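YM 10:42: MinD-like ATPase involved in chromosome partitioning or flagellar assembly sequence, as discussed on the call
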Amino acid sequence: MADKPEEPERGDLAPRDDEPTFRPSPLEIDTKLSIAVDLPPAPPQEVPEDEAAVAIDDIPVDPGFVASPTEPTTTSVAIVASRLATGPTATQQDAGDGVVPLPGQDGHSDAFAQSRRDRLRGEHSPQPEPAAMLTADRLLEVNRKTRPGPEGPWQRFVYNVTFRTVNLGDSAKVRARKELDHRIQKQFEGGTRFVPVLTRKGGVGKTTITTLLGMALADAREDRIIAVDANPDRGTLSERVPKQTRATVRDVVHKAASIGGFTDFSALVSRDETRLDILASDTDPLLSEAFDENDYNVVADLAARFYSIVLTDCGTGIVHSVMRATLQRADEIVIVSGGSVDEARLASETLTWLEANGYTDLVRNAVVALNTATHATNLVKLEEIESHFRSRVREIVRIPYDPQLAAGSVVNWKDLKPLTKLSARALAALVVEGLPAERA
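YM 10:58: structure's back
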């Protein structure tokens, strides 16, 4: 009998013809396999701001390690919320600061935007709110009873005929007027804003522009506006409103120690129908020349206690000490130019003098009021004057001819031509937009 062929040992992996192929389990391999692969670092992934994904902490994995089925192991994996793109930096987290500061709490953001449009209904503010935030559109529910009636002839007619059930809204003209009002009514925080009105040329209408600007501001705003005549050469600002007192800036200086409130101060000013207060200059040229830098600072300090905006009607003496004190307090300036060649040139030279004396920022933020009621306006190209100033300042506004202004007497706001009032309101809106909303 032939010998039976010898069976292979268990270590021999060669299969026999009469048995199925046998593949060992990876668990029966005693040797661990380690593979080293050099991969370039993955680029950092930015998480979209509108998503809040989760990230798994990086855990080293051995590709040759396989857990034994008889000895199961448990690995804890930490799940952490991924950082948004605008979250704190690694340095901040290492220092223990894991809280992202809210807007307005880092000392660099505006505390308030004077509006609740960017916040949800009923959401609390992170900081105490000023009284200006309690507006009618925030507190009142808009319905048939609280919604105001439309302005405009046709809109009002439809509103009345339908027994106040159909409200077409305001006309386009009324909407434009209200939008201009909204720009002028910008709220300020942190003190009084000072706006000098000046130029080196006399007779171009500085006093007229100061009066128009002050009336436009006082007519649209709810806070107090005052115009101070700081012309050392016998200013005429007080003659543009009905005179209610004979007091001047000299009286304010003499009585400064006894002025304890707004009632005391208001007895020294004249007020017109728009609620613009006017503080007159001295009528005696000898006394007015004695009004110097220190006197102006006394008047300005008192005005800053009671008024939100102080307009200063400056004289032509740009090197006078009063001008130095005025410019040191200025938040913005208004340059007045006439429509003639020499008036426009002297207005431009005023800007050059300001730049040469360290007031470059005021020049860049300045507004030029182009008074077209001056002599020889019809003989020059106003577009060329505007083009010149547009290269140097922020904005230019044309003030049209108006018989009431040309008379050089009392100005009644309600009697001005519509175009004149519109130009004055446009000037007021531009001036307000150039003033800082907040001040430290």
